[in-house]
Specification:
The complex is a heterodimer of chains A (about 160) and B (about 270). Chain A is of the alpha+beta class. Helix content of chain A is about 35%, strand content about 15%. Classes of the chains: A alpha+beta (about 160), B alpha+beta (about 270). The complex binds flavin-adenine dinucleotide and FE2/S2 (inorganic) cluster (FES) (2 copies). The site of one FE2/S2 (inorganic) cluster has 10 residues of chain A, from loops. The site of one FE2/S2 (inorganic) cluster has 12 residues of chain A, from loops.
Chain lengths: ~160, ~270
């Protein structure tokens, strides 16, 4: 088995790995780095459970070879927490709004919504629905997820206000 | 659902990429965004012996807008093209169609040039290239050539890219001032490939539509009399060759082609 070196950071920690070229990023995160927060549902780009951020943008980790990410900054759901280590605003909002049941889809929603709120401060319900349209959830029926996107926007605005004061 | 093994190449310059493609010939495939290639490999529908990853080649990710064209580089992601304000001003159809390509998360990684090379008969951007008389520029270690849209799409999931070649850019011509365009489609779920879609451009009294999901590639239909509904319907019906599949019957696609053409033309007239 031939391996290829690749260096990237995950949630701010640098890693130098040797992986088989065919290693999917989702598997490199889960099996090589033991970051099992990233979930794998369909493994062909449809469900969104495996969504992570690459240089700030949401992407499907099941549709990327780890070797292609040399030099990238990756953020997984484990990196969407508060600086103190507690829940980040999106996680807090999902908790408050009861926006998860089994929780399998949640990591993909949390990463997607975290990136979305960076440039959408105050989404309407329709916009929130559009923002999560690429993520599937079999349990909740989405109503509480849409509420959580709006609540997360409020919480994020509160944190930004605190930063400023 | 794991992709088969392959030899991996990560060139850091265009010259190196062309060299390795020349050396490997038909054994190698280019890896761009991977949003079509990786799922095909995971499903074992493709098993290339080698991949040449062009994601680290500098200078390929530009979107250049000039007086008469928009030139999209091989590594310009769909989202980059979609959000480029100058490209939108020059050719609004680009963003209109891109908003129908998959979900934002897929568009963050998938490239517009990759989607042209991939040549899915239900993909939107091949139809846009045809509507705007565009072309694809291919480079190899031995030279360069431009292939016009009407010759580039050679069959379902096939395009005129030869072993050893890299598609370095796609050029979309800016339609004349005062032109209007629209793109409409029906898909099973938001973000899915279209069951049927229609792009339309009207300028200086001439009109053309391009249909997707109803042929081996995009079907371009020039309309001499866009105001005569019977002639439009007949021209579209004669041009398309829809087939049955798990998503829809050929009859339903034929029906959609008519309805969407009417609506798209109503939007631009
Ligand atoms: C869930 C899902 C839904 C989607 N829905 C749609 C949709 O509605 N409409 C749509 O149009 N697309 C859709 N796509 C596909 C998406 O647009 C792809 O990004 C695109 O088709 C391919 O671009 P890529 O850069 O990812 O190419 P890759 O996957 O990297 O490559 C695709 C093929 O093109 C070749 N290739 C790529 N770039 C070059 C180049 N520069 N030179 C030579 N060969 C090259 C590769 O070798 C490969 O054979 C969807 C994808 C997914 C996963
Ligand atoms: S596991 Fe990646 S999109 Fe479903
Ligand atoms: S909470 Fe179960 S799939 Fe979303």
């Amino acid at each position: 088995m031939t391996t290829v070196p690749v260096s990237f950071s995950v949630n701010g920690t640098p890693y130098d790995l040797h992986v088989e070229p065919r290693r999917l990023l989702s598997d490199a995160l889960r099996h090589d780095l033991r970051l099992t927060g990233t979930h794998v549902g369909c493994e062909h780009g449809v469900c969104g459970a495996c969504t992570v951020l690459v240089d700030g943008d949401p992407v499907r980790s099941c549709l990327l070879f780890a070797v292609t990410l040399d030099g990238a900054e990756i953020t997984t759901v484990e990196g969407c927490c508060a600086p103190s280590g507690g829940m980040g605003p999106v996680q807090q909002a999902f908790h408050e709004c009861h926006a998860l049941q089994c929780g399998f889809c949640t990591p993909g929603f949390v990463t997607t919504v975290t990136a979305y709120l960076c440039d959408h401060r105050d989404p309407t319900r329709a916009e929130a629905r559009e923002a999560v349209s690429g993520n599937l959830c079999r349990c909740t029926g989405y109503v509480n997820i849409v509420s959580a996107v709006q609540r997360a926007a409020e919480l994020t605005a509160g944190l930004t206000a605190e930063d400023r004061s | 659902m794991k992709p088969p093994a392959f030899a991996y190449h990560r060139p850091r310059s265009l010259a190196d990429a062309l060299d390795v493609l020349a050396r490997l010939g038909a054994e190698a495939k280019v890896l761009a965004g991977g949003q079509s290639l990786v799922p095909l490999m995971s499903m074992r529908l493709a098993a290339p012996a080698a991949l040449v990853d062009v994601n680290h080649v500098p200078g390929l990710d530009s979107v250049e807008v000039t007086a008469d064209r928009v030139v999209v580089g091989a590594l310009a992601r769909h989202s980059r093209v979609e959000h480029d304000p100058e490209a939108y001003d020059a050719v609004p159809l680009l963003r209109r169609a891109l908003l129908l390509v998959a979900h934002p998360t897929i568009r963050n990684r998938g490239t517009t040039v990759g989607s042209l090379v991939h040549g899915d008969p239900a993909a939107e951007m091949p139809a846009v290239l045809c509507l705007l008389d565009g072309f694809v520029t291919l480079r190899s270690a031995s030279g360069s050539r431009d292939v016009p849209a009407d010759a580039f799409f050679t069959g379902p999931m096939e395009s005129d890219v030869r072993p050893g070649e890299l598609a370095v850019s796609a050029t979309f011509r800016r339609p004349p001032a005062g032109s209007r365009s629209s793109f409409l489609e029906v898909s099973r779920r938001h973000g899915d490939y279209a069951v049927c879609g229609v792009g339309a451009v009207v300028s200086d009294g001439t009109a053309r539509v391009a249909l997707i999901g109803v042929g081996a590639g995009p079907v371009l239909v020039p309309l001499d009399e866009p105001d005569d509904p019977d002639r439009v319907a007949a021209a579209v019906d004669a041009a398309i060759e829809p087939e049955d599949d798990i998503h829809a019957t050929a009859d339903y696609r034929r029906h959609l082609a008519q309805v969407l053409t009417r609506r798209a033309l109503a939007e631009v007239s």
